[in-house]
Amino acid sequence: MEDFLKKINLNKIPHHVAIIMDGNGRWAKKRGKIRTFGHKNAIQSVRDSINGCKILGIPYITLYVFSSENWNRPKKEIDNLMYLFQNNLKNYLEEIHNNNIKIIIIGKIEKFSNWIQKNLFFFQKKTKNNTSITLILALNYGSREEIIQATKNIVKQVNKGNLSIKDINTFSFNNYLYTKNIPYVDLIIRTSGEQRISNFLLWQSAYAELYFTDVLWPDFRKIDFYKAIIHYQKRKRRFGKIE
Ligand code: IPE
Ligand code: IPE
Ligand code: MG
């Protein structure tokens, strides 16, 4: 582990890492268990990733917890997932708070139970002055939906006369997204070998580096997180320019 840490250049740390935590179902299946067993074993990977950010000084981490498309899974799996959220959310968010981490929720959380919503709001408020890193949790999140919602709100502001069309640009558009005030994504990590974005932060990661690993999410540890950062640091980010 120390060797890996030594390979990381602390002057070239991404500001915002976003993770598509994929492969829980396959991890469980490999062990002859039902898919929920994989979801239950995902928390240590979350801890390790957040801890990796703290150690390296990465100020923002977004975790894709539940997508707007995930409602299309069998009812039994959804019920199990909601049960898991309901049982662990409070303890886990308390742990986050005790680590001085600020929580921001993105996504249409009104689709979750009142209890879940209440706790998400509560912890968002409770952690708002925390000074360590910011953890953004994407819950019932869909990027296309977010962009449509932003567009509708912009149109409303224009209709009311509060906003002029000439002031709509790539900077001001950010103010209408869930991720308002959060920097763009520098690095997307996706576990489990799938190589796609699955409707995650399309606008915010327009220039992100993409890192795919075959490791299934419940197996993802700090060392895997460091490996992703090392890969990121080897990339040449040109943003359309030439060197
Ligand atoms: C990611 O693991 C967790 C969620 C999307 C909630 P999956 O449940 O997608 O696991 P696989 O991809 O089927 O293995
Ligand atoms: C993406 O994983 C969503 C989350 C990790 C929460 P999925 O497993 O739902 O994505 P697809 O369906 O394979 O693209
Ligand atoms: Mg999956």
Layout: helices, strands, pairs:
Layout lengths: L1 H5 L9 E5 L3 H7 L4 H6 L2 H14 L3 E8 L7 H24 L3 E5 L7 H13 L7 E8 L1 H18 L26 E4 L18 E4 L9 H13 L9
Parallel strand pairs: 1-2, 1-5, 2-4, 3-4, 5-6
The largest sheet is: 6 strands, parallel
Helix content: 40-55%
| Helix count, DSSP H or I runs of 4 or more residues | 8
Global mean pLDDT: 97
Q: Low-confidence spans: pLDDT under 50, at least 5 residues?
A: none
Structural class: alpha/beta
Describe the fold and architecture.
- With 243 residues, the chain is α/β, with parallel strands linked by helices.
- It has a single domain, classed as Undecaprenyl pyrophosphate synthetase (3-Layer(aba) Sandwich).
- Helix content is 41%, strand content 14%.
- It contains 8 helices and 6 strands; from the N terminus they run αβαααβαβαβαββα.
- The protein has helices at 2-6, 24-30, 35-40, 43-56, 75-98, 114-126, 143-160, 222-234, and strands at 16-20, 60-67, 102-106, 134-141, 187-190, 209-212.
- A 6-stranded parallel sheet has the order 3-4-2-1-5-6, with helices on both faces.
- Strand 3, helix 6 and strand 4 (134-141) form a beta-alpha-beta unit.
- It is globular and about 60 Å long.
- It binds 3-methylbut-3-enyl trihydrogen diphosphate (IPE) (2 copies) and magnesium ion.
- One 3-methylbut-3-enyl trihydrogen diphosphate binds at residues 20-22, 64-67, 70, 194, 196, 198.
